[in-house]
């Protein structure tokens, strides 16, 4: 089992461009979480998804950010018209169905730099 | 609101010294609490959870409901313990994390 896979690991974007971060959950996991780690701050919850459904997006900024977890393929966190303040590490995590938050596993993160 | 507070951004100790990483929480109800560790630019790994009362890599943590604390302790620090440590609690569908504490173990 390869674990939670995130790509790209590092992404550089100019202000105004779009950033797409991908997350492949562990095999058998149908729940995906996205967290953001800003410099000097802790991890902030962004969104929780199950296949084809957004369950909780209470941590997502109201504009420019969106997330999806299609029936096939990875989960994608999309940031449109990036600004310098979007520079952060974005962590994806996954968990299997029915086992609650105790068995959540994290990916290695995607580091976004906006120049 | 559910909140996790880790008051120390950085804790620096010498090898062999005891370590205590502080964590306080606010939560209405019975929380589930965890400690995660992140070695340099790697993924977060679950270190331990309060419900299992286990000891991992020599670390222990006891939930103190009276003081709403879940401090992480180790009697003798090792250099390989140097990492970022996050305290977290479950809130609905998600984990709520503290700001993290960097532990530096000096030789």
Model description:
The complex is a heterodimer of chains A (115) and B (107). Chain A is mainly beta and 115 residues long. In chain A, 0% of the residues lie in helices and 49% in strands. Chain A contains no helices and 11 strands. In chain A, the strands form 2 sheets. In chain A, strands 2, 4, 5, 6, 9, 10 and 11 form a 7-stranded mixed β-sheet that branches. In chain A, strand 5 and strand 6 form a beta hairpin. With 107 residues, chain B is mainly beta. Chain B has no helices and 11 strands. In chain B, strands 2, 5, 6, 9, 10 and 11 form a 6-stranded mixed β-sheet that branches. In chain B, strands 3-8-7 form a 3-stranded antiparallel β-sheet, with no helix packed on it. Classes of the chains: A mainly beta (115), B mainly beta (107).
List keywords for this structure.
A: 115 residues, 4-stranded antiparallel β-sheet, 11 strands, 0% helix, 49% strand, globular, B: 107 residues, mainly beta, 6-stranded mixed β-sheet, 3-stranded antiparallel β-sheet
């Amino acid at each position: 089992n390869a674990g939670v896979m995130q790509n790209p690991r590092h992404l550089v974007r100019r202000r105004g461009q779009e950033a797409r971060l991908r997350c492949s959950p562990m095999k058998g996991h149908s729940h995906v979480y996205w967290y953001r780690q800003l410099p000097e701050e802790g991890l902030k919850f962004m969104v929780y998804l199950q296949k084809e459904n957004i369950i909780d997006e209470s941590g997502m900024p109201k504009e420019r950010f969106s997330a999806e977890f299609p029936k096939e393929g990875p989960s994608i966190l999309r940031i449109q018209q990036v600004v310098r303040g979007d520079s952060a590490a974005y962590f994806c995590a996954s968990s299997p169905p029915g086992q609650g938050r105790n068995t959540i596993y994290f990916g290695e993160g995607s580091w976004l730099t906006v120049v | 609101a559910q909140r996790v507070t880790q008051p120390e951004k950085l804790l620096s100790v010498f090898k062999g010294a005891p370590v205590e990483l502080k964590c306080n929480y606010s939560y209405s109800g019975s929380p589930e609490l965890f400690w995660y560790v992140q070695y340099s630019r790697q993924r977060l790994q679950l270190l331990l959870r309060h419900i299992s009362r286990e000891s991992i890599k020599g670390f222990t943590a006891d939930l103190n409901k009276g003081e709403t604390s879940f401090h992480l302790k180790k009697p003798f620090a090792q250099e390989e313990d140097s990492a970022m440590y996050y305290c977290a609690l479950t809130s609905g569908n998600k984990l709520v994390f503290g700001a993290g504490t960097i532990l530096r173990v000096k030789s």
